[in-house]
Amino acid sequence: MAAPASAEPVPLLDLELRPHRSLPPVGFTVLMAVLGVVGFATGVLFLAIGAWPVFGFLGLDVLGLYVAFRISYARARTTADRLRLAGDALTVDRMRPRRPVERWTFQPYWLRVVLDEGTGAGRPRLVLTSHGRRLEVGAFLGPDERARVAGLLRDALRRYREPADLSPSTSVMS
Question: What pTM value is reported for the model?
Answer without folding.
Answer: 0.65
